[in-house]
Specification:
It comes from Paludibaculum fermentans. Belongs to the UMP kinase family. One of its GO terms (molecular function) is ATP binding. Keywords: ATP-binding, Cytoplasm, Kinase, Nucleotide-binding, Pyrimidine biosynthesis, Transferase. The chain is of the alpha/beta class and about 240 residues long. The chain has a single domain, classed as Carbamate kinase, CATH 3.40.1160.10. The strands form two sheets. Strands 4-3-5-2-1-6-10-11-9 form a nine-stranded mixed β-sheet, with helices on both faces. It has a two-stranded antiparallel ribbon with strand order 7-8. Helix 5 packs parallel to helix 7. The two termini are about 30 Å apart. Bound molecules: uridine-5'-diphosphate. The site of uridine-5'-diphosphate has 24 residues, from helix 2, helix 3 and helix 5.
Length: about 240
């Protein structure tokens, strides 16, 4: 079966690398994730991946404990790079050529993010892992996901999370929560549905970038999503 998309921007939160623990990196979890991603890449889909850093550090949480927000956000952005290097290592162990590109320059560690070069890597069959968020404080890696999806001309922003889509309320707190198969950007924003941050959703709305929110913890879901099977919730117009 042929994949539905030619190019996908996959947004993964840092927590997906942490496995059972909510902190740090679980090597077996990263290996399993890389194996799934590599399988998808072998079908010919071009993949860009934006990784979060929440398994190490979240700026907003540190700011709530009196830390300067801009400094805290810089720490969060650096945390994403640690995750990117772990994922690159695991993907390369799966035989997938992978490049890490960072929005904050650190050329001894990874390539600087240059849009055309990122596209070229993907055209050559390399997975590109984007680190450093947007390089700006007060943003999240969801916004980095929207931004990179638009910049690289992805057909969809695929946000993989721990829940299987967008619900009318938090399904972890409310057993009667109802999942949407489809929801509009405006509804997401008006109802303040918290699965993705508002600036990321608004950027996609303004530029017609479809989003799919799906559960990463179900094995095989990245492949199903890339084949266009109905996993999770589609956010569109
Ligand atoms: N961050 C930032 N600007 C960005 C992206 C991320 O300042 O463009 C910081 C912010 O402090 C955030 C942290 O990096 O809390 C980690 O990113 P995020 O919370 O989005 O990670 P995730 O929840 O996806 O693991």
């Amino acid at each position: 079966m042929a994949p539905r998309y030619k190019r996908i921007l996959l947004k993964l939160s840092g927590e997906v690398l942490a496995g059972g623990a909510s902190f740090g990196i679980d090597a077996e979890r990263v290996r399993a994730l890389a194996a799934e991603v590599a399988e998808v890449a072998h079908t010919g889909v071009q993949l860009g991946i934006v990784l979060g850093g929440g398994n190490f550090f979240r700026g907003v949480a540190a700011a709530a404990r009196q830390m300067d927000r801009v400094t805290a956000d810089s720490m969060g952005m650096l945390a994403t790079v640690i995750n990117c290097l772990a994922l690159q290592d695991a993907l390369e162990k799966q035989g997938m050529p992978t490049r890490v590109m960072t929005a904050i320059q650190m050329p001894q560690v990874a390539e600087p993010y240059i849009r055309r070069r990122a596209i070229r890597h993907m055209e050559k069959g390399r997975i590109v892992v984007f680190g450093g968020g947007t390089s700006n404080p007060f943003f999240s890696t969801d916004s980095a996901g929207s931004l990179r999806a638009l910049e690289i001309g992805a057909e969809i922003l695929a946000k993989a999370t721990g829940v299987d889509g967008v619900y009318d309320k938090d399904p972890r707190k409310h057993p009667d929560a109802v999942r949407y198969d489809r929801v509009t950007y405006s509804e997401m924003l008006a109802k303040n549905l918290a699965v993705m941050d508002a600036s990321a959703v608004a950027m996609c709305r303004d530029n017609n970038m479809p989003i799919v929110v799906f559960n990463l913890t179900t094995h095989g879901n990245i492949m199903r999503m890339s084949m266009g099977e109905p996993v999770g919730t589609i956010i569109g117009n």
